[in-house]
Amino acid sequence: AIRYLDCNPDIAGAPLQDVDIVIERERGLYRVAENGLATGEAADAKGVVEHLHLHLFQRALEEFPERALLHAACLRRGGRRLLIAGTKGAGKTTLALRLIEAGFSIEGDEQVFLDKDGVIARARACRVKEAGLHRFGGMAALIAGAPSYSTEGYGTIFNVDPRWLGSSWRIEHGPVDVIIVLEPNHGGASSIRALPATALVQSLMPEVGLRETGRAAAIAAIAAMAARVPAFLLS
Questions:
Q1: What phi-psi label fits residue 56: left (phi over 0), alpha (psi between -120 and 50 degrees) or beta?
Q2: Residue 176 carries which DSSP code?
Q3: pLDDT in tens, 156-198
Q4: Nearest C-alpha neighbor of 234 from the set 171, 196, 185
Q5: Phi, psi values for residue 202, rounded to 5°
Q6: DSSP string spanning 35-100?
């Protein structure tokens, strides 16, 4: 079950630090501790995974206490960085993984921390629902071999290291060169058009998590990015 949380990208910057997380069975429950300090308890393996998932997410937030968190996939090609934003279920992960076939490398498929100088992806492997495997052609079998997790309402979800599909996986902070906002239009004709800065901000704000501190700076960073980065609406 814990393999669903596997995540081991190359990360630019300071060396990584090891943290010991111990899970022990105690009085009919699983007790979870980090570096000797209890972080919670769970009744079963599913509960342990959900606890660790939230705990690791909170640790990531602690790394950047004043940065906005944008719901977007982050890719690179030829030294240029592409963000793919959109609502849940719009197809960000599907498009991001298919772009591997066009020579893109993935930094993340879910969230990026944003500041005035650019973004850095939150370290997390790509998540693919079993119900969407048919969209991935020859990659489907590789994805189906990844660690998985089943939950009510979502079915089976695979935790996919993008390197299995031919992408590199290096995360580093840097500027954004292009933004694509996905608009769901499943089954309809595709279209793409330029998105003015004001419309881009309006599209991004529902997908942004603002912190208790640094809200003004975060909103300013979003507006500055929208003013300088070409953006497109892909339906």
A1: alpha
A2: -
A3: 999 999 999 999 999 999 999 999 999 988 788 999 999 999 9
A4: 185
A5: -65, -35
A6: TTEEEEEESSHHHHHHHHHHHHHHHHHHHSTTSEEEEEEEEEETTEEEEEEESTTSSHHHHHHHGG
